[in-house]
């Protein structure tokens, strides 16, 4: 019989270019199946670059925040990039979802400011607590208990926790820049607004807000870079000629990760159980909610959910997310989380794990411009921290604040998270929520595991 000659359709040509690029595209398609989801290799790579541009501020902010504990900043830059690359790859391969991971902003600020500086716990011990949280997190994910714990918390309380962390992060940014300062009479007061550093930080915040409002890509990193460049020409403080020091080099080999990697103290938490357990629980609950929110939000936007709104590979995503917590602690940083900025890549058309591979590649390449990252001053991150707080505070818009139970729980939780600690705000806020619901005759809305958590929190405060 004569052979029937078939010709590729124009759509196939677009999905798989000719030549070596076509071979590479087809090979990657066999792994990630982007053509089945209506995407192309070039679109997936561009989406990954877009996601990286929106979350690249983590290379600046995470090392600056954690270096306040005494950790080596150069090593933290390397650790941050490696953690983002490694766990983005793992997430992409495990799920084939366009999700990127990196050390989380809320957890690092909590550990650095409240755990290490506030409670005088060594950073090695704090990383040990993060590691144990990751192990517990993984067990909860594999056994299905993670979902039950999440369901025990009212939706309104989950949104309040996110907003509370956002408020704390924004306050930290303002404090780092000297925009707010300690005052024994009023707790806090306005800093010296005539100072060049304070004016520059305020200008950075305004710039970031404007760029975000105008939907400029990579608004946060652009704001950080703008403040850094202006700081080259403004007088500094504490013996520095300028706010920003000129870099000695533009490119260099990455710094060694060893000053922070594998330095965690796994013995300290066992010797200080009463102190460690509430910290570990606070870390656990913070990560519990953020991952689920991002997974379903980004998954729905990327059209990865099924007819019932569920993610087919949810268990794989949760296990990869849980493993990233302990893995990040081993490499010298706080918990790695799924970044909401993954949505930027989805908006660019990304649909598969190839986006995650592209993000990871960008993080690894960024290691070679470490000298530039290292000179970015702490006040330059204020704009990013405030905007992260703004994004996280938006969850309050979905609360019914006319409901006294919701409003009272939110007020207690937000105030305590900002003025005391994230862990105390979470614990006492949840206790208030359960007690008020019970007193209002709504006991049936409280799940058994919710009562168990209240009992655990109360025992912690009694044993203090």
TrEMBL record:
Belongs to the nucleobase:cation symporter-2 (NCS2) (TC 2.A.40) family. Azg-like subfamily. The chain crosses the membrane at residues 45-67, 74-93, 121-140, 161-181, 193-213, 220-237, 277-298, 318-340, 352-369, 376-397, 409-436, 448-463. Pfam families: Xan_ur_permease. Keywords: Membrane, Transmembrane, Transmembrane helix, Transport. It is a multi-pass membrane protein. InterPro entries: Azg-like (IPR045018), NCS2 (IPR006043). It comes from Granulicella pectinivorans. This is Putative MFS transporter, AGZA family, xanthine/uracil permease. GO terms for cellular component: endomembrane system; plasma membrane. It comes from the Bacteria.
């Amino acid at each position: 019989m004569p052979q029937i000659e078939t010709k590729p359709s124009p759509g196939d040509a677009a999905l798989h270019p000719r030549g070596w690029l076509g071979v590479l595209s087809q090979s990657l398609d066999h792994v990630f199946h982007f053509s089945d989801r209506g995407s192309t290799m070039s679109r997936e790579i561009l989406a990954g670059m877009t996601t990286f541009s929106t979350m690249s501020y983590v290379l600046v902010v995470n090392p600056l925040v954690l270096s306040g504990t005494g950790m080596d900043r150069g090593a933290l830059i390397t650790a941050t990039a490696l953690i983002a690359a490694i766990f983005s790859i793992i997430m992409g391969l495990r799920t084939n979802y366009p999700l990127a991971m990196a050390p989380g902003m809320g957890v690092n600020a909590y550990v650095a400011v409240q755990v290490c500086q506030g409670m005088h716990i060594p950073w090695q011990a704090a990383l040990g607590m993060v590691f144990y949280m990751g192990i517990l997190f993984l067990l909860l994910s594999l056994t299905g208990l993670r979902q039950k714990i999440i369901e025990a918390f009212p939706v309104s309380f989950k949104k309040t926790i996110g907003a509370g962390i956002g408020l704390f992060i924004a306050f930290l940014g303002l404090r780092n820049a000297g925009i707010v300062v300690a005052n024994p009479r009023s707790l806090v007061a306005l800093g010296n607004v005539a100072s060049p550093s304070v004016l520059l930080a305020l200008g950075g915040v305004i710039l970031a807000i404007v760029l975000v409002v105008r939907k400029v890509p990579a608004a946060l990193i652009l704001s950080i870079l703008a403040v850094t460049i202006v700081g080259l020409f403004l007088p500094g403080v504490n013996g520095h000629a300028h706010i920003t020091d000129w870099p000695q080099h533009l490119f260099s080999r990455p710094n060694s990760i060893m000053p922070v990697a594998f330095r965690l103290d796994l013995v300290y938490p066992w010797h200080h159980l009463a102190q460690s357990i509430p910290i570990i629980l606070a870390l656990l609950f913070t990560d519990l909610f953020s991952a689920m929110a991002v997974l379903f939000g980004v998954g729905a936007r990327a059209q990865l959910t099924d007819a019932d709104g569920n993610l087919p590979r949810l268990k794989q995503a949760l296990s990869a997310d849980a493993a990233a917590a302990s893995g990040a602690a081993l490499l010298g940083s706080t918990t790695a989380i799924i970044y909401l900025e993954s949505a930027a890549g989805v908006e660019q058309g990304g649909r598969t794990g190839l986006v995650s591979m592209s993000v990871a590649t960008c993080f690894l390449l960024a290691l070679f411009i470490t000298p530039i990252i290292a000179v970015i001053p702490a006040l330059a991150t204020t704009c990013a921290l405030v905007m992260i707080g703004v994004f996280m505070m938006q969850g309050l818009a979905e609360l019914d604040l006319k409901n006294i139970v919701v409003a009272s729980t939110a007020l207690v939780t937000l105030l305590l998270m900002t003025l005391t600690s994230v862990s105390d705000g979470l614990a006492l806020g949840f206790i208030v929520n359960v007690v008020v619901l019970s007193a209002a005759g709504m006991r049936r809305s409280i799940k058994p595991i919710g009562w168990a958590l209240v009992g655990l929190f109360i025992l912690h405060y009694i044993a203090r």
